[in-house]
Specification:
five-stranded antiparallel beta sheet, 11% helix
Length: 159
């Protein structure tokens, strides 16, 4: 009986220890359309959270704050409004500096564009997105459709 109890305890320790890996992953989408400002960049807030493992994404301000140092993958997808002069022009920022941008025009119909980046982050780094300044820049969304989304996940923790 002692041998069985010891083996069972070892199995429980392995299962529990194996489940202690650092985790961080999220996907959020917008639930409304957005128009640009003629003079300043605007934060893009993806207010509807589909997944938020680790709660590192804040749907109130649209910012991902790194809790676990490591290599991350982020993807930004935007859809333009349908208009003769509308363009979706947004950028993903790391600590306030542009890393990659997304561009799609709405002249002939709604267009979607995405960009993906792999980046090494330190604890406390902030990743967020902006709609570039300009009256013709706008994002389309219809309710819960999720045409505009922001996804990120920890690929490898820092060792």
């Amino acid at each position: 009986m002692a041998l069985f109890t010891g083996a069972l305890l070892a199995a429980v320790i392995i299962v529990v220890a194996g489940d202690c890996k650092p985790r961080s992953a999220f996907t959020a989408k917008m639930t409304s359309s957005m128009n640009g400002d003629p003079e300043k960049n605007l934060p893009i807030v993806f207010d509807s959270v589909l997944t938020n493992v680790g709660n590192d994404y804040n749907p109130t301000d649209g910012k991902f704050t790194t809790r676990i140092a490591g290599t991350y993958v982020f993807s930004l997808t935007l859809m333009s409004k349908l208009s003769s002069d509308s363009t979706a022009f947004g950028c993903l920022l790391l600590n306030g500096k542009e890393q990659v941008c997304v561009w799609s025009n709405g002249i002939n119909g709604h267009e979607m564009s995405s960009n993906t980046i792999t980046v090494k982050l330190k604890s406390g780094d902030v990743v967020d997105n902006i709609l570039k300044a300009g009256t013709r820049f706008a994002l389309h969304n219809a309710g819960q459709a999720g045409y505009c989304s922001f996804t990120g996940f920890l690929l490898y923790p820092e060792v």
